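Dig into what follows:
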Amino acid sequence: LFKEALGDVDGAVADFRTYLERDDVDDVDKLTTRMRIAYLLKNTGRRDAAMAEFKSIFSDKNLQAIAFEQVMESHVMYGRLLGEKEPKKMLEHYRGAFRMFESKKGGLDAEDKSRVWAAEMQFLLLEPDFAEYDKIEMPADTKKTKKSLESKSAGSRRWSAATSRCSSSSRASGASPLSTASARCTATSPTR
């Protein structure tokens, strides 16, 4: 803990890994420590190492059976890191993870936090262009601000028109929004 507090990430990770090798550590502590390592690496900007840690957690078949919530959390964290450089691969990853969630959701409690992680993935799958509108930069110059707002509003109106066409065609066909709308809407979304 001291190494982590002092910013010695490599030393802290090494100590955590040594702890994981002990025979007296139960499965819950092992999982908690593995998640802590992954978040430590993520929070200190070690993207590739953090992705590898999160992937090792969600790929562990034993954890999928006993700690599904942490598996789903690891999928989302991995996807967020993947999306920083490769948004399309993030969506592909989320599609696979969401299918896994769909196959297991019937056996989950209503309060199971894996539902929250799945909801984040589902939102991004249904609204892949959300990130573009999540944050709008506004120039300090008022004339430029007005022009920027008009431009953003026009883009928003185009997006709204495209998604209303997609959602109405999905409703008409009676198909699941996730299974059909994301594929059709991606194809009909306005280019920017």
Remarks:
- Residues 166-192 have pLDDT under 50 and may be disordered.
- DSSP finds eleven helices and no strands in the chain.
